[in-house]
Write a structure and sequence with these properties.
The protein has six helices and seven strands. By secondary structure, it is an alpha+beta fold. Bound molecules: adenosine-5'-diphosphate (ADP).
Length: 318
């Protein structure tokens, strides 16, 4: 019995020792698992931090991409604009050459006749000197417009206001237009107040505005028609209406006639010479005087261009 008990006790002791060993091993494994869990947590935190950083970089990249595509769009627009300007410049060069060649050919022809006739009869002399003179005027008007355009493009229109008599300016312009008008049997009429019309402005620039308007009125008039220049004055402003009985301007083209290089169907259909610059330059000059320019036109009835100028000249720069 005692032996049996002893054997049992020994067996229990061995079991206890085995359990203790197992418990110790398990404890070690649990500690290891805990350490691994802590390491995993740290790793997870690290990963989510990395995810946040990645998300931010992603947002930064998206912003950068949007920014870059904005820059690409604006560069594409700029390149298109440069190409358009380049094409306009080439067209201008072609127009300038063509527009100068026509009056120069007439001058050359008139001078050849005068040189060939020795001495020319008074009639021939006066007729061909007249033709040469008119065409010199035309060349000067064209060059004046090109120079003004160059100044406008350079941002220095350079209006030099001084006291002037607008009626005198208009009479000068009409006198110079009489030749080209007579060639097309167009009559020019001036309706202005009797006395002088004092105004502050740049006489050469205003001359160029009214030359452009009269040049158009004459060249678009049918043979034998009348062009009227009517002047109205108030103590504050002067308004000049230049009216022709030409083909009129199509309503859809009227808002565009003051654009640079715009040439409408009345000009292109009838092959009327021109550069599409006169009205643009006139508008810039009138506005530099603090004035306004506009047009009213009816197809088949004619056009009236109206210029209103403040009598005190351009407002001083603020
Ligand atoms: P250009 O006469 O050299 O073509 P402008 O700038 O003076 O250039 O005029 C621009 C356009 O406006 C003309 O091509 C023409 O289509 C239109 N226009 C101007 N004046 C008249 C007018 N008096 N009658 C009809 N159309 C006109």
């Amino acid at each position: 019995m005692t032996d049996t008990l002893q054997t049992l006790v020994q067996a229990f002791d061995r079991m206890a020792a085995t359990y203790e060993l197992m418990a110790r091993r398990l404890g070690g494994q649990i500690e290891q698992l805990e350490a691994e869990r802590t390491a995993l947590r740290a790793h997870l935190a690290d990963l989510s931090q990395q995810q946040i950083t990645l998300l931010r970089s992603n947002q930064d990249l998206a912003r950068l991409t949007a920014d870059l595509s904005g820059q690409v769009t604006s560069l594409t627009h700029r390149a298109e604009e440069i190409r358009r300007q380049d094409q306009l410049k080439s067209e201008l060069l072609a127009t300038v050459s063509h527009e100068l060649r026509t009056p120069l050919t007439s001058i050359k022809g008139a001078l050849s006749v005068l040189l060939a006739e020795d001495p020319p009869s008074p009639e021939v002399r006066s007729e061909f000197l007249g033709i040469a003179h008119q065409n010199v005027e035309r060349v000067m008007r064209l060059i004046g417009n090109f120079l003004n355009l160059a100044r406008i493009e350079a941002g220095e229109i350079g209006v030099v206001p001084r006291p002037l008599d607008l009626v005198e300016v208009l009479r000068g312009v009409l006198a110079r237009m009489r030749g080209p008008a007579a060639e097309r049997r167009v009559s020019l009429e001036l309706e202005a107040p009797a006395g002088p019309l004092p105004l502050t402005g740049d006489p050469e620039m205003l001359e160029s505005v009214f030359s452009n308007l009269l040049d158009n009125a004459v060249k678009f008039s049918p043979e034998g028609a009348l062009v009227t220049v009517r002047v109205e004055a108030t103590p504050q402003a002067v308004t000049v209406h230049v009216r022709d009985r030409g083909p009129g301007i199509p309503p859809e083209e009227a808002p565009r006639v003051f654009e640079r290089f715009f040439r409408g169907t009345p000009a292109t259909n009838r092959r009327v010479p021109g550069t599409g610059l006169g009205l643009h330059i006139s508008k810039v000059i009138v506005e530099a005087h603090g004035g306004r320019i506009g047009v009213e036109s009816r197809i088949g009835e004619g056009s009236t261009f109206t210029v209103t100028l403040p009598r005190g000249g351009p407002a001083p720069a603020p």
